[in-house]
Write a structure and sequence with these properties.
Elements (H helix, E strand, L loop, with lengths): L2 H24 L7 E4 L3 E4 L8 E5 L4 E8 L2 E5 L4 E5 L3 E3 L2 E2 L8 E6 L7 E6 L18 E7 L3 E8 L3 E2 L11 E3 L6 E6 L3 E6 L15 E4 L1
Length: about 220
């Protein structure tokens, strides 16, 4: 074997050994793409609890962690794709740290006239997932009017709200709009006493007109 050939092969093997050592030394710092769900968790359409739940993942399921933003990570599995809180994800036996950047490096062993080896270690660039804006949440409500046929000044109460004493609005309500068919209780006394219940709108209230002190919407 020629001396030059032996020297080239020695350089190649030395380079491979250095590369292997670099892999062992640097890989633990890299953010691994494969991950494991550590507890049952909701999958959301965006990075936050104000985004809609699109699916759920069970403890122990395997996912592909594609990108992290603040404390949320975009994951993909055969069952669901979306955003999951990083506190419910583990990689290489440790909780995923979304603030830790992935590692990517590479180098070439060999010269232009001899054998050449290209070595690369690290995460591949993942496509940026679409950001879904949270949709406004519609809350049913009932609006009460000072005049009959839904005229004049008004105020509204959402489903689940009530007033035991209308104070400035006592003995002023003459009609109300109830487009969602909620259960509306209008009472002639405070603390929901002497009441009538409606499930539709009312353009007038008969003998309860201007005679209401407490209301409840359910």
């Amino acid at each position: 074997m020629h001396r030059q050939t032996r020297k080239t092969m020695f350089n190649v093997f030395t380079g491979v050994a250095v590369a292997a050592a670099a892999v062992v030394m640097f890989l633990p710092a890299a953010q691994a793409a494969p991950g494991t769900v550590t507890s049952n968790v909701n999958v959301r359409s965006g990075p936050g609890t104000n985004y809609a739940v699109v699916s759920t993942l069970r403890r122990g399921q395997q996912v592909d962690v594609q990108q992290c933003q603040t404390s949320w990570c975009y994951v993909a599995s055969r069952d669901a794709t979306g955003w999951v809180s990083a506190s419910f994800l583990a990689a290489n036996g440790q909780q995923v740290n979304p603030s830790q950047p992935g590692l990517s490096f590479g180098f070439t062993i060999g010269g232009p006239n001899g054998p050449q080896i290209n070595i690369g270690v690290g995460n591949q660039q993942q496509p940026r997932p679409p950001v879904v804006r949270p949709q406004p949440v519609y809350t049913p409500e009932v609006c009460f009017y000072e005049g009959s046929r839904l005229r004049g000044d008004s105020f509204c109460l959402s489903q689940g709200e009530s007033s035991r004493d209308l104070r400035d609005w006592s003995d002023r309500i003459s009609s109300f709009d109830n487009p969602d068919g909620l259960n509306v209780q209008v009472c002639s006394e405070a603390n929901f006493r002497d009441c009538r219940t409606y499930t539709t709108s009312a353009s007038s209230l008969g003998d309860f007109d201007d005679y209401i002190i407490s209301v409840r919407v359910r």
